[in-house]
Fold each of these.
Amino acid sequence: MCGIVGYLGEQNSPREVIINGLKKLEYRGYDSAGIAVIQNSGELKRVRAQGKLTELEKALEYEPIQEGHIGIGHTRWATHGVPSERNAHPHHAGKVSLVHNGIIENYLEIREQLLEAGVKIESDTDSELVAHLISREVEKTKSIFSAVKNVKPQLKGAYSILVLWEESPNELIAFKDGPPLVIGIGEGETYLASDVQALLNYTQKFIYINDQELVHVQFSKVQKQPSTANFTTETSKLSKEEQLYHVSKVTLYNQRFEKIEPKVATINWSADLIEKQGYAHYMLKEIYEQPRAVAQAAAPHIDLEKMEVQLDKVGFDINNLMDLEKLDSKKDFQSTLEVFKNIQKVYIIACGTSYYAGQVAKYFIEKNARINVETDIASEFRYRNPILSANELVVTISQSGETADTLAAIRLAKNLGAKTLSICNVKNSSIDREAHGHLYMNSGPEIGVASTKAFVSSLVILNLLSLALGKAKKVLNHDDEVIFLRAILGLPSQMEGILAYDKYFSEAAQKLKKFKGFLYLGRGVSFPIAMEGALKLKELAYMHAEGYAAGEMKHGPLALIDPQMAIVMLAPQDDVYEKTISNLEEARARGGKIISISTGENTQLQKVSEYYLSLPKAHWSVNPMLAVVPLQLMAYHLASALNHDVDQPRNLAKSVTVE
Ligand code: M6R
């Protein structure tokens, strides 16, 4: 769950590329950071600092790194060893420098082996041990590529690693098994990073590295020839250095160390999408982007003329070829309809906020398609020996597409013979590449650690999925389909209205922060939204919050209620409204202070509530997307009032690529 960046080339400054890249990756970890560059003098220089990246930037002012053309950098989320400068990456062993994202599971064994051999180990990390293994090997082979090739099979666990060797400043090695790693292709220069966002300022062309692959990047300067594209008649007038052009060669190897052909993908995200664009925090920007996000999620899947849901293009690439042009349609591809008609049961698997989206979807699919749905937290599913079969559909939801537990769950589901469908925001991410069928949240980059726009976008996709399943099963008629689709199409403008609560919560935050705890209650589709609201408050405001099914309160949690407890009651006027109100009264009778969220001018609720928020009147299936917005704003403003770092809450990271 760290972020890594590497650069080999001369057009850019490695120091700048790495620091800029790490800034975009800080969401992955932010307890310490470091950089190492082989300077033009030939000396390998490293600077590290505990704390956020700004601390590293300060350290670089005192201890500047000179220019060079190769470097690696790291921003850390500690696993082995406390956050400190000593444990920060890059780790050095002899003339080898290495950055690592992940966990080396057999590190104790390696550590003992190294200590026995008399190696001096400086940090408490598992990563430094890998640097030593490579350093010892390079002493023998005198080739950094061969050294890595020999060490790789000794490593167990999850890793993405970049390695350079002071003796060979024109080579950079990368290899991975687990955490993501991409190669950015420049003109005569090569970039490496944990994700594409780190490199969008430099390139939009990427190669996604698969597990077990090894990358050898080599840099050289070649004399311009008349036949080269760079040749001009002016060439002869140029200085010797100017007559050279830069070549960066990227060679990919598979697990058996055979050369493989890289596939280059072009990403259409632009660099400005990952800037704050005037907002105080990414999270606030992303909350405000939600009306656009839901529209973008829905657009590819609604035929506006026929008013029909369109998931036909999604299809199921049964052999997981991922290259739709090469598919033999009969053998490898099944249409969505073909698959959906035969589905007997749906499993939805995810973590955190994405899991709550899955829980809302259980209501959607069971109501609209009358198919039994089980939801599971990925870390539970993967270890509970699930029973799956070919007519079962396993849907995974993941904004990043890199969450380790969700990735393991989809792999397991495939091995057990189920059809898999991923809903991701990041295209070509590991989970996306693993699935038979692919749907996208399409919400643009989400940088704030707390997920917001990806959540509402995934709810839209799940809503549409339930309609497509309902149609395939002939449970849903066209009139009903039109009602659902109209509700989705109305979402952007209704959300705009709710964003006006921003001011309301920024004013209320000073009073709300005095509560000792928060209970979020709801029934039906509002129950998972209650849990999502509580999660937002926990992760941002570090306050105790619980999401509960309102009807379950009397079975225990009522004992928690006193005047210091705020009750956030989700009570849209749906078919369980009356029952929700009874639960609200039970909580109020025990002294709880009520913050209620309902539909329209609800005077009954306004009278009994400390705070009352009104949602626009909407179809039940879009209430969750509307009701979550005030909960996001409330968590955001409470965290700001408490002076917490909203975009980078303590102890957390955006994508959890370790177990
Ligand atoms: O990238 P994913 O959707 O797989 O991430 C899952 C969770 O880690 C994520 O939703 C987490 O719970 C967020 N911090 C919640 O705001």
Amino acid sequence: MSDTVRMTLDEVRDYARATLRRVGLSEPHVVAVAETMVAGERDGCGSHGLYRLLVAAHSVASGVVVPDAVPVLSRPKPALVRVDGQGGFAQLAFETGREALVEATRANGIAAMALNNIVHFAALWPEVEALVADGLVALAFTPSHAWVAPAGGTKPVFGTNPIAFGWPRPGPNPFVFDFATSMVARGEIELHRRAGKAIPTDWGIDADGNPSADAQAVLAGAMRTFGGHKGSALAAMVELIAGPLIGDLTSAESIARDAGRKGSPIGGELILAIDPAGFLGDAAADHLARAEAMFEAIEGQGARLPGSRRHAARAVSEREGVRVSRALLTDIDAVAGKAK
Ligand code: NDP
Ligand code: PYC
């Protein structure tokens, strides 16, 4: 028997929704959360696909997340949108504020949305992609739990703190990158642990501060930032602008609030959106067209653009479905069964 199962994207969606219902999420959260898992599987990002059902189920069971939270939207200033997630998952908070953010960006040229009081386990590219689909340039940032040591140190201070950026392009695929400021997302190390696979020794250090290829040892020790002091500074920036600046938790505060429950990170997210027409008016399309020369210069020499692997994976998944680990589905069913 194969150790993977082929599923269409509709089957992935149905499975994710059914599982989230069984673990007790309210229907609006079920729909919003499942969609980001479908996006993860579809775009070949296993660390943020159906694997996250285990993570979400645990956050519900351990009382880290409010499963039926109803997010509350407010407009503190004309160009600022705030959504208080009331302790629920981030996806529904984002959906609650999305239209208001687009409207504020069109009205002011630039706008920001703070998501507060949320629990976050998702990839950020679906959010910036959604804003880029409205013709905006978008950036998103969120801290997580203190798992990552600063460059030159050995003790966790930062979260894996992703940064996502999206830029509209002619044609179906925008320019989007989305990466952790750690060497790799923690979810990738967790997947290596589950599979009993070694990790590259530059991903992290064990509890004694030594580089390690043992995923479990690094999960118990500290992860490293990417790019040495540069990634470390970017991780610090994410802590500041998506933590204290919006009145929310740092990664150290998030893990303290978790109090050993091992749930998903608790805190906030900052999303910035810019309307190219703000600076450029009717000339926006001409200037955006000039940006294409840069993309051509990158691809013209055989280098690839961030997002190109995802878009290629998406085309295959939409046509042929995806392959999901049988062991993962068994574990998810067991966890969801217990929740019932
Ligand atoms: P990767 O290191 O795989 O990097 C992802 C980004 O880099 C993608 O945009 C990817 O494009 C691009 N990229 C990768 N290789 C190349 C290459 N050779 N040339 C050009 N571009 C390249 O991802 P991470 O492990 O850092 O993060 C994975 C996900 O985890 C992210 O989506 C992030 O949002 C999520 N995450 C979420 C957190 C949270 O708190 N909510 C915390 C940490 C991470 P492509 O996709 O096309 O390969
Ligand atoms: O993979 O680092 C990670 C992560 C943290 C929160 C969500 N994903």
